[in-house]
UniProtKB/TrEMBL annotation, chain A:
Coiled coil: none annotated. Component of the eukaryotic translation initiation factor 3 (eIF-3) complex, which is composed of 13 subunits: EIF3A, EIF3B, EIF3C, EIF3D, EIF3E, EIF3F, EIF3G, EIF3H, EIF3I, EIF3J, EIF3K, EIF3L and EIF3M. The eIF-3 complex appears to include 3 stable modules: module A is composed of EIF3A, EIF3B, EIF3G and EIF3I; module B is composed of EIF3F, EIF3H, and EIF3M; and module C is composed of EIF3C, EIF3D, EIF3E, EIF3K and EIF3L. EIF3C of module C binds EIF3B of module A and EIF3H of module B, thereby linking the three modules. EIF3J is a labile subunit that binds to the eIF-3 complex via EIF3B. SMART domains: PINT. Residues 673-849 form the PCI domain. This is Eukaryotic translation initiation factor 3 subunit C. Belongs to the eIF-3 subunit C family. It comes from Callithrix jacchus (White-tufted-ear marmoset). PANTHER family: EUKARYOTIC TRANSLATION INITATION FACTOR 3, SUBUNIT 8 EIF3S8 -RELATED, EUKARYOTIC TRANSLATION INITIATION FACTOR 3 SUBUNIT C-RELATED. InterPro entries: EIF3C, EIF3C_N_dom, EIF3CL_C, PCI_dom, WH-like_DNA-bd_sf, WH_DNA-bd_sf.
From TrEMBL, chain B:
Coiled coil: none annotated. Keywords: Cytoplasm, Initiation factor, Phosphoprotein, Protein biosynthesis. Its main location: cytoplasm. PROSITE patterns: MPN. The lineage of its organism: Eukaryota, Metazoa, Chordata, Craniata, Vertebrata. The keyword Coiled coil does not apply. It comes from Callithrix jacchus (White-tufted-ear marmoset). It is found in: Cytoplasm. This is Eukaryotic translation initiation factor 3 subunit H. Component of the eukaryotic translation initiation factor 3 (eIF-3) complex, which is required for several steps in the initiation of protein synthesis. The eIF-3 complex associates with the 40S ribosome and facilitates the recruitment of eIF-1, eIF-1A, eIF-2:GTP:methionyl-tRNAi and eIF-5 to form the 43S pre-initiation complex (43S PIC). The eIF-3 complex stimulates mRNA recruitment to the 43S PIC and scanning of the mRNA for AUG recognition. Component of the eukaryotic translation initiation factor 3 (eIF-3) complex, which is composed of 13 subunits: EIF3A, EIF3B, EIF3C, EIF3D, EIF3E, EIF3F, EIF3G, EIF3H, EIF3I, EIF3J, EIF3K, EIF3L and EIF3M. The eIF-3 complex appears to include 3 stable modules: module A is composed of EIF3A, EIF3B, EIF3G and EIF3I; module B is composed of EIF3F, EIF3H, and EIF3M; and module C is composed of EIF3C, EIF3D, EIF3E, EIF3K and EIF3L. EIF3C of module C binds EIF3B of module A and EIF3H of module B, thereby linking the three modules. EIF3J is a labile subunit that binds to the eIF-3 complex via EIF3B.
């Protein structure tokens, strides 16, 4: 089996990876790295060990020798220099030392040096004799070594207690000693190693060891005998490491190893021990290897390479010679799955393992059932890969996931006798008995839904203005294709509920797309014969409208959960609105009664509702139904939080109001960029429809004290425009609308028109509509009509009569239209005038009060209230109690005194005029 | 507004009038007012206003400008050039006749308190622009002087003083006294001037003036309403408290009766005013002033409409005559 792994390039990268892993590891005692065993190459690597240690230790011993020489000739300066070098060299050898223990010779030199220095220090006479440099160096060195030795205090004291043990070692022996000591370790088994670890590790590593031990307890494998302890620590620690650094193959290998003994049942404990020992040894070796790599100074590359094949041959699924049967594979699968979700499990490794298993299964012709089963699990673990909800799949994972689902679908389509379902129990699965239909546990629908979610997440987390986004967006087609396939599959085999769910998924991927083909077809219906072949081929796809209709109707009829139906309705409306089928969209919206109870829905559905309303409003605008457009958009626009309500971004303002958690939740609700509704378009549509409504209204109610605003936001924009001290030509969309409104107020439709429709506005807004030209013609017409109305309201007082022909010329409207508009105004009592048919003129009645009359009326009103207040004061004067007037108003009114006061009131008013 | 009692009257030298008009034209516009000091002398029951000088316009920058110092210095300087230096009042421009304010009352009071004959000369530039010079001299009535001296504007005090808005100010009749030579010159000039120069007087446009006046009148009426509402609440609060006080007293009395019948000593007397603090009465001066202002507006409008009506009839007659 291992031949999958014997590819040369693989091994290289693997080894280098493992190297990196070690480098990044913090210095600590838990070096159980790579418990990979394959015993054949053991002899080989021993040399590596020696060389690795040698190099460092030789360096040290050389330095020590120089120091000793310097000591003999009392050259303290030299001593200082060398000591500094020694310190550095020791630092380099630190990782080896951590493992091996502080070499005795090193301790010895430290102790000796300190003694020597103290001696020198005490020797006052000698000090006097010393030259200046030396004296200075002495004091520095003395301080340094004191400080330095503090770290090694225990070692030094222990050395001082029995200095004879290593009394006269030279460099040659030294090496042997270290060799021997490492051998010793091995013989002493884990206990000595443990003490080693304890000794060498600093406090934090000790802690980590404890922590690891705890993990061991959780781990099933910790049932192994006590002897294995530090092997265990090793492997688990490597696991935890790999958890940090996702997806490292070495860890994967360790997993294999751990499993190997359990699969091979006939392995004896003694053998295991041996193995462990070997492993431990190997650990050390490989680690040293890595260190060498890390330094890259000495060119001992060959040897490193020698160690490599070791690493890569590790992953072994089954023991050699095991017969691959269903039972074995399933067992293996379960084993792998058991590790799922556990703390120490490396998820990347799991995926790899499962993929291997599929290959094995396929190679051994174990049947589709098993493969389907494993595939399900692969996809599931792909989804599991990210533990955090907020993070999203990496592109390669995503690609893998898509491929996997596609393959799974291939199999399912190719083998109609496979039954897949989430309610099939594990026990009742039938994976290989080909006589009966195969039954596999698993839910393809859930997988696809999850896939869709992941896709949304990827889109949410990609910068929408980057090329990357486009790349990701290309996957949308694939996602749609998969959904379509699953839909086909489920239509055959799934329950209605499942079909509803997959339909909704399909709808969600369809509703927001404008169907250009259908649109094109609509524009040129009859001349299909003259079209080329290619065009026809293009047109063959189902109309998205028809598709939506079919899917939604199915859901309306069959769905039992409210949510799916609501979503389907909203999407349906949205789709209608997008394709300018205003009346269908509106009727559907009204029939569904969603407006009444949408506030009870969950936020994503509310966002969808908002989007639908906005789309509906824009659709109404395209149809020239300004009032409907305004009403539909009012809720969204008046809040000033359109961005948030449509799920197209978070507002900065409310950042303080919500905490981190809420923000995360909100972030997850965001709609991916390709579904966004252009906010500027939205605002422009709203403002223009508000302008078309508000300006004539304002003109009509100019002097009315109680007139109401139709659109607050529009008024706000107008006020902002007025506040500007200098008015330049409009720049932004809002300024354009404000400028247009001002022109319209004067009834100047041409200027208004030129402000609303020009190059800038076309680029910003109008060209975004599918039928831009149609919208523009509608808009011009609307502007002409409303300007005419405004003109009549504003200037009717200066006319006695006005010819309709003149009006028709002024506003470039045809006579019947002018006639109808004026008639409507007269009927609605907005314009006090009458039409003179023979001369085609409008005759004004002049019943409107003038400014002075209006003022006088207002004054009269005010005086009325003043008098009333005054009467109350009078009541007090008469000695009636407070509240009398209020309580007995009716009775009071009948009082005689009232008449007198009434007369007084008349007098008052008269004087006022 | 009543006329001053007795024969007291003012004589203004034309140079004063021209100075005031010039002052407004140069420094005042719109609702901004200009002010200045009148100088002259009192001869028997005649107040002669022979000279004046303007106050500088107040700006934010010179908040520490000392007006008194300025006045004293001006007067000292004028005395050096042998000009009458008796401080006989002050003048102020007005916007559509709105001058009855607290500020005017206060400063006029202080003038009149110092020199009894002091007057305030109100100059209406808008009316003047329409063709008829509008200058009016006012004094505070002795009654109002009394009230202002007391500084008690509570309803009771005003009631006791028997003061109403009609009796706040008294108008001093004034004449512009020209020297004979000037009169002769005027006659000569009048002969030479064409009729067209006086067309402002005959302007038929009324809406602007009337509208403005109405607007101002309306604002005052609003203020008046608010004031009355305030007064109303005060009245209500007082009466409510009276009631409570009454009830409390009655209860007390009953208890005392019972105690007496039982042979116990009566409850000690308590300070009722501490228990029931009467609500702060609103100052009535403001409402008086507003009423006075409303009165002025009304008179203005009345005058204006009467004149305009006359003009309209005249125009109609002319029209008919021409036809």
């Amino acid at each position: 089996m291992s031949r999958f792994f014997t590819t040369g390039s693989d091994s290289e990268s693997e080894s280098s990876l493992s190297g990196e892993e070690l480098v990044t590891k913090p210095v600590g005692g838990n070096y159980g790295k790579q418990p990979l065993l394959l015993s054949e190459d053991e002899e080989d690597t021993k040399r590596v060990v020696r060389s690795a240690k040698d190099k460092r230790f030789e360096e040290l011993t050389n330095l020590i020798r120089t120091i000793r020489n310097a000591m003999k000739i009392r050259d303290v300066t030299k001593c200082l220099e060398e000591f500094e070098l020694l310190g550095k060299a020791y630092g380099k050898a630190k990782s080896i030392v951590d493992k091996e223990g502080v070499p005795r010779f090193y301790i010895r030199i430290l102790a000796d040096l300190e003694d020597y220095l103290n001696e020198l220090w005490e020797d006052k006479e000698g000090k006097k004799k010393m030259n200046k440099n030396n004296a200075k160096a002495l004091s520095t060195l003395r301080q340094k070594i004191r400080k330095y030795n503090r770290d090694f205090e225990s070692h030094i004291t222990s050395y001082k207690q029995n200095p004879e043990q290593s009394a006269d070692e030279d460099a040659e022996k030294n090496e042997e000693d270290s060799e021997g000591s490492s051998d010793e370790d091995e013989d002493e088994e884990g206990v000595s190693a443990a003490t080693f670890l304890k000794k060498k590790s600093d406090a934090p590593s000790g802690e980590s060891r404890k922590f690891l031990k705890k993990m061991d307890d959780e781990d099933e494998d910790s049932e192994d005998s006590e002897d294995d302890e530090d092997w265990d620590t090793g492997s688990t620690s490597s696991d935890s490491d790999s958890e940090e650094e996702e997806g490292k193959q070495t860890a994967l290998a360790s997993r294999f190893l751990k499993k190997a003994p359990t699969t091979d049942e006939d392995k004896k404990a003694a053998e295991k021990k041996r193995e462990d020992k070997a492993k431990k040894k190997h650990d050390r070796k490989s680690k040293r290897l890595d260190e060498e790599e890390e330094d890259n100074e000495g060119g001992e590359w060959e040897r490193v390479r020698g160690g490599v094949p070791l690493v890569k041959e590790k992953p072994k699924m089954f023991a050699k010679g095991t017969e691959i049967t269903h039972a074995v594979v399933i067992k293996k699968l379960n084993e792998i799955l058991q590790a799922r979700g556990k703390k120490g499990t490396d998820r990347a490794a799991q995926i790899e393992l499962l993929q291997l298993l599929v290959q094995i299964a396929a190679e051994n012709n174990l049947g589709e059932g098993v493969i389907v089963k494993i595939k399900f699990n692969i996809i599931a673990s792909l989804y599991d890969y990210n533990p955090n909800l907020a993070t999203y799949m990496k592109p390669e994972m995503w690609g893998k996931c898509l491929d996997c689902i596609n393959e799974l679908m291939d199999i399912l389509f190719a083998n109609p006798n496979i039954f897949v379902g989430e309610n099939i129990l594990e026990e009742s699965e039938n994976l290989h008995n080909t006589d009966q239909p195969l039954r596999v546990r698993g839910c393809i629908l859930t997988l696809v839904e999850r896939m869709d979610e992941e896709f949304t997440k990827i889109m949410q987390n990609t910068d929408p203005h980057s090329q990357e986004y486009v790349e990701h967006l290309k996957d949308e087609a694939q996602v749609c294709a998969i959904i379509e396939r699953v839909q086909r599959y489920l239509e055959e085999k799934g329950t209605t509920e499942e079909v509803c769910r997959i339909y909704l998924l399909r709808i969600l991927h369809t509703y927001y797309k404008f169907d250009y083909k259908a649109h094109q077809r609509q524009l040129t219906p009859p001349e299909g014969s003259s079209k080329s072949e290619q065009d026809q081929a293009e047109n063959e796809g189902e109309d998205s409208a028809v598709l939506m209709e079919r899917l939604c109707k199915y859901i309306y009829a069959k769905d039992r959960t409210d949510r799916i139906r609501t979503c389907a309705i909203l999407c349906h409306i949205y789709h209608h609105a997008l394709h300018s089928r205003w009346y269908q969209a509106r009727d559907l919206m009204l029939m569904s009664h969603l407006q009444d109870n949408i506030q009870h829905a969950d936020p994503p559905v509310q966002i969808l509702y908002n989007r639908t309303m906005v789309q509906l409003g824009i659709c109404a605008f395209r149809q020239g139904l300004t009032k409907d457009a305004h009403n539909a958009l009012l809720d969204i626009q008046s809040s000033g939080r359109a961005k948030e309500l449509l799920g197209q971004g978070l507002l900065l303002r409310s950042l303080q109001e919500r905490n981190q958690e809420q923000e995360k939740v909100e972030r997850r609700r965001q709609v991916p960029f390709h579904l966004h509704i252009n906010l500027e378009l939205l605002e422009c549509v709203y403002l223009v429809s508000a302008m078309l409504l508000e300006i004539p209204y304002m003109a009509a109610h100019e002097s009315d004290a109680r007139r109401r605003m139709i659109s607050k936001q529009f008024h706000h924009q107008l006020r902002v425009g007025e506040r500007q001290p200098l008015l330049g030509p409009p720049e932004s969309m809002r300024e354009h609308v404000v400028a247009a409104s001002k022109a319209m107020k004067m009834g100047d439709w041409k200027t208004c028109h030129s402000f609303i429709i020009n190059e800038k506005m076309n680029g910003k807004v109008w060209d975004l509509f599918p039928e831009a030209d149609k919208v523009r013609t509608m808009l011009v017409r609307k502007i002409q009509e409303e300007s005419l109305r405004t003109y009549l309201f504003t200037y009717s007082s200066v006319y006695d009569s006005i010819s309709m022909e003149t009006l028709s010329d002024m506003f470039e409207l045809d006579l019947p239209t002018v006639h109808s508009i004026i008639s409507k105004m007269i009927i609605n009592e907005e314009l006090m005038a009458s039409l003179d048919q023979p001369t085609q003129t409008v005759v004004m009645h002049r019943t409107e009060p003038t400014a002075q009359q209006n003022l006088a009326l207002q004054l009269a009103e005010k005086l009325g209230s003043l008098v009333e207040n005054n009467e109350r004061v009078f009541d007090h004067k008469q000695g009636t109690y407070g509240g009398y007037f209020r309580d007995q108003k009716d009775g009071y009114r009948k009082n005689e005194g009232y008449m007198r006061r009434g007369g007084y009131r008349q007098q008052q008013s008269q004087t006022a005029y | 507004m009543q006329n001053v009692e007795g024969d007291f009257r003012g004589e203004i030298w034309p140079s004063v009038v021209l100075k005031i008009i010039k002052h407004y034209q140069e420094e005042g516009q719109g609702t901004e007012v200009v002010q200045g000091v009148l100088l002259g002398l009192v001869v028997e029951d005649r107040l002669e206003i022979t000279n004046c000088f303007p106050f500088p316009q107040h700006t934010e920058d010179d908040a520490d400008f000392d007006e008194v110092q300025y006045q004293m210095e001006m007067m000292r300087s004028l005395r050096h050039v042998n000009i009458d230096h008796l401080h006989v009042g002050w003048y102020q421009s007005t916007y559509y006749g709105s001058f009855v304010t607290r500020a005017l009352l206060d400063s006029q009071f202080s003038y009149q308190h110092a020199i009894e004959e002091s007057v305030v000369l109100i100059y209406d530039p808008i009316k003047t622009a329409e063709g008829s010079l509008s200058l009016k001299a006012y004094r505070l009535t002795p009654k109002l002087m009394e009230v202002c001296k007391e500084k008690d504007f509570s309803p009771e005090a005003l009631k006791k003083a028997n003061i109403t808005f009609e009796y706040m100010f008294e108008e001093v009749p004034i004449v512009i006294k020209n020297s004979h030579l000037i009169n002769v010159l005027m006659w000569e000039l009048e002969k030479k001037s064409a009729v067209a120069d006086k067309h402002e007087l005959l302007s038929l446009a009324s809406s602007n003036h009337l509208g403005k006046n109405l607007q101002l009148l309306m604002d005052r009426v609003d203020e008046m309403s608010q004031d009355i509402v305030k007064y109303n609440t005060y009245m209500r609060n007082t009466s409510k408290q009276q009631q409570q006080k009454h009830q409390y007293q009655q209860r007390r009395q009953q208890e005392n009766m019972q105690r007496q019948s039982r042979g116990e000593p009566p409850l000690p007397e308590e300070d009722l005013s501490k228990l029931f603090k009467p609500p702060q009465p609103p100052a009535r001066m403001d409402s008086l002033l507003i009423a006075g202002q409303i009165n002025t507006y009304c008179q203005n409008i009345k005058e204006f409409t009467a004149q305009n009506l006359g003009k309209l009839f005249m125009a109609q007659a002319l029209q008919e005559y021409n036809n």
